[in-house]
Amino acid sequence: MAGERPICDRDTLYEEVWKEPMQVVAKRYGVSDVALAKTCRKLGVPVPGRGYWAKLKAGRADPRPALPPPEVGQHRAVTLHPVEHPMPPEWAAAVEAAPLTQIVHETLEDPHKLVVLSGRYLAKTHPTNGLVSVIRRTCLAIQVSPESLDRALRIFDALIKALRAAALQVEVAVVEEPVPVHRYDYRPLDREPHRPARVTRVLCEGESIEISLTESVRRVEVPRRQYSGKGDHVWEPKLHEYVPTGELALQLTNTAGLGVRSKWQDGKRQRLEDLLDDFVGNLSRVALAFKLKRQAEEERAVAAREAERRELEELLRRRG
Fold first, then answer.
1. Which of 102, 28, 33, 57 minimizes the C-alpha distance to 282?
2. In DSSP terms, which residues pair with 281 in a beta bridge?
3. For residue 140, what are the domain limits?
């Protein structure tokens, strides 16, 4: 579709977005799914809500609403402006071959080996501030309460399977940590070696995108002890404890400063289970943001070296 600007009318767009996922339709027009969603709003075309395709696959999706008549002054068609590469070729092929619709089942069904191993480690871990996590073993980046552990494992299992369907690899990788230098080391010679920390990451378009699944906590004040005797009370500092809320979130943990969305979480009208498609669909944009950031840094470095060279030439010219 290079060099062309397709015309998109209301009726056609309405049929398309309710027949296939937004990512697939957007690829066909040569635009991003975000741009296509804006076009739908501009034309007054209703679109499927979050989790629609997963519910449709499970046979429990809500019926699609009728296309409302255009409002006064509203466009009936618009001209789209395709970008040269709306998404990487490998990603586009994966989306076309396997639309991203992964259901989170009520029980673990044929779980991924990382999910099985993580479940064993986390089940044996004592909670800290109400949450369990393991960072120094081959364990997925999960930090939730024991009560939410089963749900977190089921979500991560569905996420891994959705990523594999999109030809993306998930792994638990070792983080390089600085080794502290001590003047004296009294550790016994038979002590177990220090285990390095690990992160969970997705490899997308050659970029490592680190992810985690966490549960939010609420800090509450612990009531002070009541004294029945008279006289001065013993001063005690305020104490707090952390209470898990049951609200889970998927996060990208190494994308600060990229200007991309980095968090998907439970809300009043949505659950994290219904946001996995959106999470997976965002990874190609994150990979592109990494590449653009690196390109910008290289360009700035080249410009800095060029400016330094010119400054040195000017200095030599003045001395000569």
1. 33
2. none
3. 113-177+194-222+237-294
What's the token pair of residue 311? Answer: 């400054």
The pTM of this model reads: 0.63
Burial of 104 (0-12, 13-18, 19+ CB in 10 A): buried
Question: Residue 32: what are its φ and ψ, rounded to 5°?
Answer: -80, 160
125 and 257 inside one domain: yes
pLDDT band at 184 (very low <50, low <70, confident <90, very high): low
Nearest-angstrom CA–CA distance, 17 and 230:
74
Q: For the chain, how many residues are written? A: 320
131: left (phi over 0), alpha (psi -120 to 50) or beta: beta
Q: Judging by DSSP bridges, how do beta strands 77-79 and 7-9 pair with one another?
A: antiparallel
Q: Kindly state the tokens that stand for 179.
A: 């080794």
Does the pLDDT of residue 187 top 60, yes or no?
no
Q: Which amino acid is at 42?
A: K
